[in-house]
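Archive maintenance. Older records in this collection stored only the sequence; we are now back-filling the structure field for every entry so that each record is complete. The fields below show one back-filled record exactly as it appears after the update. Entries are processed alphabetically, and Phosphoribosylglycinamide formyltransferase is next in the queue.

ARCHIVE ENTRY
Title: Phosphoribosylglycinamide formyltransferase
Organism field: Seohaeicola saemankumensis
Length field: 196
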Amino acid sequence: MSRRVAILISGGGSNMIRLVESMTGDHPASCVLVASNDPEAAGLARARAMGIPTAAVDHRAYKGDRPAFEAALQAELDKAAPDILCLAGFMRILTPSFVQHWEGRMLNIHPSLLPKYKGLHTHARALEAGDSEAGCTVHLVTPALDDGPILGQARVPILPGDTEARLAARVLAQEHRLYPLVLERFARGDMTRIDL
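Back-filled structure field:
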């Protein structure tokens, strides 16, 4: 039986597109909803063009009341009844109660080699630290920020003269490879870690 997947985005949705494109043929999952905290997120139009139902819950309408925003978001998710929730560039910190509701069923992709560089500005921080490599991580979401069991990582070298933008582009290309592979395995019930 196909697992139902909802994807949360905040922007253009490039990882969302790769996830949706991967869910074809004998894939164990299908996308039933793309939702965003920003009604103007470009990824919503892209999802609709791919035939995916969409929803938007504008966080700004809730004036910092995260539980009320999450209740509205959960109501949209409930309509689609997903089994798995994928965060794909969803730029809102979720409350412990929301995360616990989805415990063991929510994945996130983060643009660093966790546990290094949780939070924002990951590429700049890797460059400032003089690291020799960077990358991305797919993990199960827990109430702690950018924490939780790691299901996959992809690494890229940091090259001489790298800028934040150049490094970010190389990491994003690996995100587009890694996230679909982890989701497919996860939807089959396989928690084995993938390293690229």
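Update note: The chain has six helices and eight strands. The mean pLDDT is 96.
Entry marked complete.
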